[in-house]
Design brief:
With 146 residues, the protein is an alpha+beta fold. The chain contains three helices and seven strands. 29% of the residues lie in helices and 44% in strands.
Length: 146
């Protein structure tokens, strides 16, 4: 079974602002400071657009890692999707949705991934990885909201 993590965060800001903040490389770096994440190749500044690739370098589980993602879909200001093209996962798709709600926006992260290493990866999901990824996404959403 492929883990799917869904996080919804209410942000008291217009949908256009939330959409732009979520796809801004510099803001992404600020919202993931706990893992020292930074863009090291591809689109390393500004707003991500359809077709853009970015290689992120970060420290997870005490190990410096690199992951390259590509923006596969974008519908301003409603959603964008990034997919891993190279990295530690077997695969992942991260869809970011933005839904107007009253005076603000519901930002919805839908993160679907497959761990490497078959059954060992599935065991890692159950033991710690799914919880780690959920906490990472919640933390980033909380920082973005600020």
């Amino acid at each position: 079974m492929v883990p799917i993590i869904i996080i919804e965060t209410y942000i008291e800001s217009p949908v256009e602002v939330c959409f732009d903040f979520a796809r801004n490389v510099e803001i992404h770096t600020k919202t993931t400071s706990q893992t020292k994440e930074r863009a090291v190749d591809g689109t390393t500044e500004g707003f991500l657009k359809k077709g853009d690739k970015v290689t992120w370098e970060a420290i997870h589980f005490g190990v410096k890692q690199r992951l390259t993602a590509k923006i596969s879909e974008i519908e301003e200001p409603k959603s964008f999707t990034d997919v891993m093209v190279k990295g530690a996962f077997h695969s992942f798709t991260h869809t970011h949705e933005f839904i107007e709600n009253g005076y603000g926006t519901i930002m919805k992260d839908i993160f679907e991934y497959k761990s490497p290493f078959g059954i060992i990866g599935q065991l890692a999901d159950k033991l710690f990885l799914e919880k780690y990824m959920r906490n990472f996404l919640v933390s980033r959403a909380s920082e973005l909201k600020k």
